[in-house]
Amino acid sequence: MAPTQPTRWLDDEQQRDWRALVIGTTLLMDQLDDDLRAAFGVSLAEYEILVRLSESEGRAMRMAVLADALRHSRSRVTHTVARMERSGLVVRAACADDGRGIIATMTDKGHALLTRAAPVHVAGVRANLVDLVSPEDFAALGRVMNAVADRLVSGHPDRDIR
Amino acid sequence: MAPTQPTRWLDDEQQRDWRALVIGTTLLMDQLDDDLRAAFGVSLAEYEILVRLSESEGRAMRMAVLADALRHSRSRVTHTVARMERSGLVVRAACADDGRGIIATMTDKGHALLTRAAPVHVAGVRANLVDLVSPEDFAALGRVMNAVADRLVSGHPDRDIR
């Protein structure tokens, strides 16, 4: 990681745009998190887990696969899912196939909460991001962040979905 | 925040780009954080605080102003600066002007660390973001995230810099 050539500093515009990414993302995720907590008592991380489970066969995923899909650490997902289990949104059980690994399954209560929360969450994503800018600029943001994700996932094969 | 009209769901492309932002940002910040921790023993949050202090008169800022500049909560910045003080990177003192508020000042050790870390950090921002994409797409990302930051800061006047 140590640079071997003279440092290519960011120019003023790049520096401003980089800071906008850091600060804008911080504010955006905090806002979406605040909205979900205020209306439904769940965090953004809990909401994202409900979404992933709802898209999976049987509304169930191995914890390791769930962590990889979200690009969160195993310990972070374990912590979040434990909280969700106490709230009755998911249940955990040992994997029947091989006795190893834990499966998280969304409960009916979790599904009902997701159904109520999704319109509010999407309205927030639109109001604070998608509908603020031109479709062309939003598509460019998508290209940039897909390139970032592709690079960093490929650089960390252990983070691939199993 | 509750929507009063039929939900305008994201289309497939918007959904993909939104997920790319969430996942790409998570991976990118984790990578930059890992790089700084491995090479210099500081987190990305600590690094950002050193940068802000280095740009300030006397390498010092009120804690409240520092939190606002970073768009972090007061409690988060208090926690991070306390850790940095234990590492000898900053010192804290009561504000001389009015006896209220706390000033964080970067030490010579903090400045020396920033001088060594900055080239590595910039190389990481380039390799994992700026140099991956066209200047036009990166500028579009900047426009999007500046729009997001402007909207969310103006919606929270208590977060303005004082």
In a few lines, what is going on in this structure?
2 copies of one chain form a homodimer. The first copy, chain A, is mainly alpha-helical and 162 residues long. Chain A is 63% helix and 8% strand.
Features of the shown structure:
mainly alpha, Arc Repressor Mutant, subunit A, homodimer, globular
Tell me what the CATH architecture of chain A is: Orthogonal Bundle
Apparent shape of chain A: globular
Strand content of chain A: 5-15%
Could you estimate the helical fraction of the residues of chain A in percent?
55-70%
Description:
The structure is a homodimer of 162-residue chains. Chain A is mainly alpha-helical and 162 residues long. Chain A has one domain (31-156): Orthogonal Bundle (Arc Repressor Mutant, subunit A). Helices cover 63% and strands 8% of the residues of chain A. The first copy, chain A, has a 3-stranded antiparallel beta sheet. In chain A, strand 2 and strand 3 form a beta hairpin. At the A-B interface, helix 1, helix 5 and helix 6 of A face helix 1, helix 5 and helix 6 of B.
Question: SSE layout and pairings?
Answer:
2 copies of one chain form a homodimer.
Chain A: H1 12-40, H2 44-54, E1 60-62, H3 63-70, H4 74-86, E2 90-94, E3 102-106, H5 108-128, H6 135-154
Antiparallel strand pairs in A: 1-3, 2-3
